[in-house]
Specification:
Layout: E1 6-11, E2 17-22, E3 28-33, H1 50-57, H2 60-129, H3 140-149
Antiparallel strand pairs: 1-2, 2-3
Length: 151
């Protein structure tokens, strides 16, 4: 720190070291720092001794907890397996529906093609049968014939 600031270290009720710094331009600032409470510290609990574990494994409470845990695991695995089966069944249904829809698309495309062909054939026939008319109301074919004969 600079010469213009002062430091003071205290501990709160949880064993956390708090550094208080006072600079010449501001009031006290608190900066928490974690410091282990016990000198051998790290905050981890000590593992129980092996003799205590052996005694715990024979207790009714331990057996009940293991039985409940085993049932919970079994139930969880069954739910997971059922969910996978349900998902696979849904995948199969969607594949079948997709195949049906694709065959329907092919059928409708063929139908559209046939209808287009019919429409174009009909439109072509109409164009061949309709003769354009001149301004005087007679067909152009009649006008061509009369001009060729000299009338």
């Amino acid at each position: 720190m600079s010469k213009q600031s002062q430091q003071k270290t205290t501990k709160d009720q949880n064993g956390v070291s708090v550094i208080q710094t006072q600079a010449h331009t501001s009031g006290l600032q608190q900066v928490p720092q974690l410091v282990p409470v016990s000198p051998g510290g790290g905050g981890k609990a000590m593992a129980p001794s092996k003799s205590k574990k052996a005694a715990d494994k024979e207790s009714d409470e331990y057996r009940q907890r293991r039985e409940r845990n085993n049932l919970a695991v079994k139930k969880s695995r069954m739910r997971s397996k059922q969910k996978a089966q349900d998902t696979q069944a849904r995948v199969n249904e969607l594949k079948e529906e997709n195949e049906r829809l694709e065959s329907k698309i092919k059928l409708l495309s063929k139908e559209l093609s046939v209808l287009k062909d019919l429409f174009l054939e009909h439109a072509h026939n109409l164009a061949d049968n309709v003769q354009p008319q001149s301004n005087d109301g007679s067909t152009t074919e009649q006008n061509n014939n009369s001009s060729n004969t000299g009338q």
